[in-house]
Prior knowledge:
Blueprint: H1 2-26, H2 29-51, H3 84-100, H4 103-124
Helix pairs in contact: 1-2, 3-4
Amino acid sequence: xxxxxxxxxxxxxxxxxxxxxxxxxxxxxxxxxxxxxxxxxxxxxxxxxxxxxxxxxxxxxxxxxxxxxxxxxxxxxxxxxxxxxxxxxxxxxxxxxxxxxxxxxxxxxxxxxxxxxxxxxxxxx
Length: 125
């Protein structure tokens, strides 16, 4: 897990640096917002890895690992027949449309996205 965690933390830090630099150079709100959102998303994944996957023992984290060692490795449980991806897409659509149409719709989409994210976490256990 340490390799992936380092990747997400460094990518999040890079995204924050790019967002700040972009704001200082361009003073453009939408691009800065999107770069900040990318940094937030990468930080969220890193936080999830720290909290929920801290005992993960992945082959890629060992220095002496061979490619054949990763064959058949279980990296998680995925529910195939879950309606949650559709609900997540609808929640994100609500957020994006809300940014264009109405802040109330964006707020409802954000609440729905947080609820769907919690359900994803519950369902993955």
